[in-house]
Amino acid sequence: RRRKNQPANNGQVMLFDLDSDLGEKTNLADKHPEIVAKLGSRMKELDAEITKNQRQPWLKK
Predict the structure, then answer these.
(1) Cβ(13)–Cβ(36) below 8 Å
(2) Cα 36 to the chain's mean position, in Å?
(3) I want to staple 15 with a disulfide (CB 3.0 to 4.6 A). Which of 3, 24, 29, 37 is the partner?
(4) Rounded CA separation 40/11 (Å)
(5) How far, in Å, CA of 45 to CA of 11, rounded?
(6) What one-character-per-residue DSSP string does 36-52 give?
(7) At residue 28, what are phi and psi to the nearest 5 degrees?
(8) CA 8, chain centre distance (Å)
(9) Is-contact 42 29, C-beta < 8 A?
């Protein structure tokens, strides 16, 4: 059994319907590429925002 902080997918895109598949057994990424693309785009936006607003640990405001 893997630990929570260890990657399980080796970089594979994974998408699950947690309402019907709480155990995350069925990867739906191939069946819903539009959702995968939308989520991927949003992740890139959030990463850019976080990076832009990142403060150096030794600087205080």
Answers:
(1) yes
(2) 10
(3) 29
(4) 13
(5) 19
(6) HHHHHHHHHHHHHHHHH
(7) -100, 10
(8) 12
(9) no
Would you state the structure tokens that stand for residue 26, as one six-digit string? 């069925």
Which residues of the chain carry a pLDDT beneath 70? 1-9, 59-61
Q: pTM (2 decimals)?
A: 0.65
Cβ(9)–Cβ(21) below 8 Å: no
Other Cβ atoms within 10 Å of 44 Cβ, number? 10
Report H helices in 1-61: 33-52
Q: What are 39's two structure tokens?
A: 């989520």
> Residues near 8 by Cβ (< 8 Å), separated by ≥ 6?
2
Residue % of the chain over a pLDDT of 70: 80
Contacts of 33-39 spanning 24+ positions with Cβ under 8 A: 39/15
Task: Report whether 15 contacts 29 (CB < 8 A).
Answer: yes
